[in-house]
Design a protein that fits this description.
Two copies of one chain form a homodimer. The first copy, chain A, is an alpha/beta fold. Chain A has 18 helices and twelve strands. In chain A, strand 1 and strand 2 (19-20) form a beta hairpin. The first copy, chain A, starts with 14 loop residues before the first strand and ends with a helix. The interface between A and B is large, with 107 and 107 residues.
Chain lengths: 464, 464
């Protein structure tokens, strides 16, 4: 949606009397910002509706005042469902160019946001390059950088946490995952889980709390985080550090205890005009997805829900873009607003370029199918156009309208490469004699001719 | 499930007084056949339950008396959800070995049934080879062969149709798609559709009826088809010749008019003790899937529902294994019993080996996720075992338990190829410092040591 970087607008017109504050601040005070107008335009929605939704916390526009290349986008139930692509290198492979390739590929295929989850190399430089190059909102998990600055997890200090958050905010990060809801008292609740804590941030904080016997510093210093977020208009993505890591651990006490806390933290953020979204699982059996979305919407008063999948089975490593796209479609249908992609490499290794493509396409499918199913505006138009092109055997148009034209064309051309076949009334799947649409068209032509003949003979009869 | 061909049993013990008749015949007369016992065993179910379900038409065991290499399997809501893989060559490429490769690959990765949809080459020979080699039920669409025997579709005669059906039945085909419900009077109902008729069989019959201005010969001669089916115990797969070919055409008058007829035909089949399943769409928006399954179950009195996907969006050619696996999971969750796979090549070309693998795995995911979601027996056990292996960093066990061990291992080994890494407490996705499960285990070890220390100091105190 945001992939035409040529018409980047300059926003940042949000200074009232020299003080830059959040979209929510203005929304509550009945000001429609440039960002709101832009989002309203691309979503074909009334700017006043966008403003109202933001004021209520039901819609967010993650747009750090220092992310100048950004084309704003909205996340919430009144707009189309969005998808996020995670990029970023690991400690082993560190290459800025490669990450920028991933960014460009992700945006090209339709990622609405990206998260830079880099954990190795010159993190500040990589992040700077990504923010500068990205037309879509950039998210991070600041605690990943914090960990690289200490020798052992227990050496983390609250000051270091806040410093890194402010550093990244200043750089222009649009939204940050902060696991403020993983409370010390919830840790015993994961004891009988199969996979324990599977959120990196959650596990880091849990180990810190266990060793120090102290409360989560992100919870203790939440007010300071809100101050920083408000200053740069960073959207807080309240992380689910205790999300389930397998079907067996889904919807357990630990998960929902944290969700209750996220509900409180949402209210506190809104009081300070800070935009918020809520992160969700992870791994859930299909039959628990609707309940999970409804629960989040109730407890967090319809703050946008940002889900990671969820995977609907654990038995398909290598295919978790599929297991999770199934869950993501269901989640979107029931009210989730941002779907975080999962690539085929999940659980196995760091995704490379082809994995990014597979992940993004699977999630464009999920988001679109969910939009169609929830009856969102004219979302089915593109399906109808493609289906018309299909029935008319206009192959080029069919490829053009598809989510991944290159792949569709390549698969078709494997057996019928010639340009002449781009109007052929069949493909190699059925061949001309067995193509149902070709036969249907033959029937229609026959019926048409018959009608004309009948009409002609009636007219002839009439003149006699 | 049926992929260990070493212990093929000899069934065919169904002759009472020299007359071989259908599973349903015996089920209704309180006889538990060898096939029923076998299915009960592999499904961990009481044979009497299997018999009752077959008697009521709610469960089928497609097992032609002449398919001697078959290991019987059941399709119905009381057993696990099954998947079908379509194989078969086209008029262009005809190669028996290649089709047998596809068969073996499909069965290896978990196809529960296969359909031979060949339309070119020596059809009888290919079919014979597939039936001989297949441990799983083999399905066909006899009208495809009929078309190859005539110059023009209108040259088809009822006699030719019945002859080919009998020929294939005699060969050992376990189930056949027959589009008996496409009635002449329903044809005007597709007039305003975007993609007309997309079932090959449906379109062939529609053209025939239009040119002859006569009723569907498969409907007219349904009793004769039942006689053949009863003789060899061929399960009739009542085809949905008017299924929707795109979202816009879903759940329309044409589709449901045919379904009503399929309901009548089901009753007529059951009266003759012929086993039946009902074919379903195709293309459906996610929100219409539950309604479609419920409607079929009501109209066809819970005859097993055999769905093709359905695809939940039309805009992803090249990825229709994913768009349709989403729909198939939903359909299975709501009560469909057999899921016909769709490969990435759907709408673009004839699937090759790699497409078969992708299709089968996507559908194993769908069937399994649906079984878990509907709470089917102990279906989640495998997820739990894999999750435990994951948390214990037992990589080999994790690969072993996964749906496609080769692919999972390959993806892991791309970055960490050494055997030593098969017990490593991390993978390249996060690296050791950022692995949440590694950190959780560190926390657990710390807590354990602390407890032991506390206990030790208490004991020490006690002895003082």
């Amino acid at each position: 949606m945001n992939n035409d970087s040529s018409d980047v607008k300059t926003f940042l017109k949000r200074s009232f009397s020299g003080k830059t504050i959040s979209q929510m601040y203005y929304a509550k005070r009945n000001h429609i910002t440039e960002e709101m107008k832009y989002v309203a335009e691309i979503e074909n929605e009334d700017p006043e509706v966008i403003r109202q939704e933001i004021a209520l916390g039901k819609l967010i526009i993650p747009s750090n005042i220092n992310h100048t290349s950004l084309k704003p986008m909205g996340v919430g139930k009144k707009v189309s469902i969005k998808i996020n692509a995670n990029i970023g290198n690991s400690a082993v492979t560190s290459d800025i160019d490669n990450e920028l390739h991933k960014l460009n590929l992700a945006v090209k295929f339709g990622a609405d946001t990206v998260m830079d989850l880099s954990t190795g190399g010159d993190l500040n430089k990589i992040r700077e390059a990504i923010i500068k190059a990205s037309p879509v909102p950039v998210g991070t998990v600041p605690i990943y950088q914090v960990v690289t600055e200490v020798k052992k997890i227990e050496d983390i200090t609250p000051e270091l946490l806040l410093d890194i958050i402010e550093l990244q905010a200043k750089q222009g990060v649009d939204y940050m995952t902060v696991h403020c809801g993983v409370l010390y008292e919830y840790l015993p609740l994961v004891k009988n889980r199969i996979t324990g804590i599977v959120s990196r941030g959650g596990s880091i904080l849990a180990l810190w709390m266990t060793k120090h016997k102290k409360q989560n510093p992100l919870y203790e210093h939440y007010d300071k985080i809100l101050e920083i977020a408000r200053k740069y208009d960073v959207t807080l993505s309240l992380g689910d550090g205790l999300r389930p890591g397998c079907l067996a651990d889904a919807s357990d006490e630990a998960q929902f205890a944290e969700l209750e806390t996220l509900g409180e933290l949402t209210q506190r953020a809104w009081e300070k005009d800070v935009q918020v979204m809520i992160e969700g699982p992870g791994h859930l059996p299909l039959d628990q997805i609707e309940m999970n979305v409804k629960k989040e919407q109730e407890i967090c008063k319809e703050a946008p829900f940002y889900v990671l999948g969820p995977l609907v089975t654990d038995i398909a490593p290598g295919y978790d873009h599929i297991t999770s796209a199934i869950g993501a479609t269901m989640a979107g249908f029931h009210g989730a607003s941002l779907l975080c992609y999962v690539t085929p490499k999940e659980h196995l290794g760091l995704p490379e370029l082809e994995d990014v493509r597979q992940g993004v396409i699977a999630y464009r499918i999920a988001a679109h199918a969910a939009d169609v199913a929830r009856g969102y505006k004219n979302s089915r138009d593109r399906d109808d156009k493609l289906s018309k092109a299909r029935f008319e055997f206009d192959w080029d148009r069919q490829f053009e309208l598809s989510l991944d034209p290159e792949t569709a064309r390549r698969m078709h051309d494997e057996t019928l490469p010639h340009q002449a076949h781009k109007q052929a009334e069949f493909c190699s799947m059925c061949g001309p004699k067995f193509c149902s649409m070709h036969i249907t068209r033959e029937m229609n032509r026959f019926l048409e001719k018959q009608e004309q003949d009948e009409l002609a003979s009636k007219l002839e009869f009439g003149t006699k």
